Amino acid sequence: MTFDDFLQAFFSWEILEQAWPILWAGFLNTLVLSAVVVPLGFIGGVILALLSTLRSRWVRWPLIAWVDLFRSLPPLVLLVFVYAGLPFAGLEVSPLTAVAIGFFLNTGAYYGEILRAGIESVPHGQTEAARSTGLTALQALGHVVLPQAVRNVLPDLISNTLEVVKLTSIASVVALPELLFQARQAQSVTYNATPIMAAAVIYFVLLWPVVRLLSRLENRQMAGRR
After folding, report:
1. Per-residue pLDDT tens for 166-179?
2. How far apart are CA 102 and CA 99, in angstroms?
3. Which helix (H) or strand (E) holds 219?
4. Which of 86, 137, 147, 213 is disulfide-compatible with 91, CB 3.0–4.6 A?
């Protein structure tokens, strides 16, 4: 295979022009999907993290089981189970709804563990000081402890968010036309890998600024600990 053959097989401008409309549509769907599943996962994580502060074993043990279960299940298996299993319970869900539920369960467990670690990193004296000003336990947690917890684990939260955005590509298994799904459709029509390479470039352009931000935050956090 010559270099020209390689370029034609993986970086054909003609194929890219033909595939670009559906790639762009897939990219927009990926943005919408990310805008749905990331906040959902974070909200789920906040709920789990707040529940983890309760001392009752009747809450803590089921919570531990819940988190361990959804962190252990492969996201792809969970997504297929939600999409194909809920109809047997009489609940017909759209591909987007199935993805939202699956990601809420899976990513919420990961966000929850990150936030729990952040809450535990805040000195208990902060809570006592907040309570001494007249705040209730819940107000102290929401206004004093949680903001500090988020700041302490911000690099981990951003790193997890990056993984969530990349993980949206599994939505293709339920026929949700996100970026990778559209790239594979274009590849199957053109018999050329250019759409897949274009999708990779789009992911890189989308996520690289966030990766650089994450590196700066990690370096700043390490410098602050010295």
Report:
1. 888 888 888 788 89
2. 5
3. helix 194-224
4. 86
